[in-house]
Amino acid sequence: MLHTTPNLSRRDFVRLGAAGAAAAGGLDGWSSLAADDVATGAPKPHPVLTPAKDFYDVSRGTPRPHSLVGAAQIEARLTAESWRLEITADAYIEAPHTNTPATLAKPLTLANGNALDLPALMELGKTREVSYLKAIQCLNLEAPLGQGLWTGVPLKDVLKMCGRMDNVRRIYFWGYHNHDPKQVFKSSVSYTQLMETAPGELPVMLAYRLNGEPISLIRGGPVRMIVPWSHGYKSIKWLQHIFVTNDPRNNDTYSSGNNDPDSFLKTAAYIDKGPDKIKSGEIIYLSGIAIAGPSGLKRVEYWVRRVEGNPQPLAFDTPEFQNGPWVECAIQQQPDWSSVLPAGMKANQLIGFDKATGKALTWPMRYCTASYSAIIRDLKPGTYEIRARTVDLNDFAQPEPRPALKNGRNAVQVRRIEMT
Ligand SMILES: Nc1nc2c(c(=O)[nH]1)N[C@H]1C(S)=C(S)[C@@H](COP(=O)(O)O)O[C@H]1N2
Ligand SMILES: [Mo]
């Protein structure tokens, strides 16, 4: 039986955890909760595919592109029939950054009447379509916005429609912005990042389906860029322009505001809200969601700290913080994919999954979220701070190795509880 208390050393926990998990066989979707823990009402993991109503929106522009209706929506080319994508090359050069301009053999433009439309993109999808799971997280917000199954065509295959490309070092993209240059929200990837995807890695794609359905206007449809490894600011909604350049400088909209414009997702844990007053003797359910960046997720741990009054915030690099003791949480188990995926989609069609078994090749999956939970018992009356942090596959405990928050909000969160 697994009873985790803050006094348990990590070694004890692992020993008990292994025995508990073996006895319980990983109950109710969790890696290591015992039968009686589940019976007492342990929290359920968050859904793998975020329901549309719970997907949090981060959009600029007035009016918001997704608020347009009727003729305005058609005029903005934000319907399936009116959508068009232009792909052009930057003719401008600026020494010493560029001395030769980028070229495309066949640019696609509205003026020439050959801008890409949705039927043509989906025709390319008949041979090039890819699907993968990915969470969207804003670099500047304290929790993931939502996770979905995205389907579309890799950007590199779309670029091939323009024939030969020369002197291209960066690829920019932006969406509909009310024809107002001040409202442009643009992002970019380097040529190499785009063209060469490591085996098992996820390619940048032009997505036209989310969870098996056309992408809604609020999620950035008809077509949205998805940059798997990065924060939300690279995943441009209402996509309408791709622009290749030989200028290697990163001039993403997010490079202003002191943000790192090449940051990739940071492995981190976020704590669910819960009661802040609990009767002594009652159980505390700690739960939350962790996201995995390229460095992966080894485990989530919590630490219960007894405090008096309202102490100063505790810096992560102090010995007290580092020593905890930190105790391992249960992690959501790999689900039965047939009950998670939309009708007609099989797990072994997704990138990052084993073709034969239909299981994710790594668990938890990179660029995705996984729920965690812990059951905390036997706290005496008093005030407690409960923290949760991730440890990545390089053994870095959050917020390391990136404690600067302008490359991803990954401060270790605290839930304060009074045991009455
Ligand atoms: N066209 C456009 N795309 C955009 C944005 C925007 O304001 N305009 N915001 C970006 C930012 S900063 C984030 S975090 C994500 C949020 O995606 P979501 O609204 O689907 O959660 O969209 C990105 N794509
Ligand atoms: Mo963002």
Structure description:
It is a single chain. The chain is α+β, with helices and mostly antiparallel strands and 420 residues long. It has two domains: 1-43 and 272-420, Immunoglobulin-like (Sandwich), CATH 2.60.40.650; 52-257, Oxidoreductase, molybdopterin-binding domain (Sulfite Oxidase, Chain A, domain 2). 12% of the residues lie in helices and 26% in strands. The protein has seven helices and 21 strands. A five-stranded mixed β-sheet has the order 3-1-12-7-8. Strands 4, 5, 9, 10 and 11 form a five-stranded antiparallel β-sheet that branches. A hairpin with a 2-residue loop joins strand 9 (205-210) and strand 10. The longest helix has 15 residues, at 10-24. The protein is elongated, with a radius of gyration of 24 Å. Mean pLDDT is 92; it is low at 1-25. Molybdenum atom binds at residues 58, 138-140, 232-233.
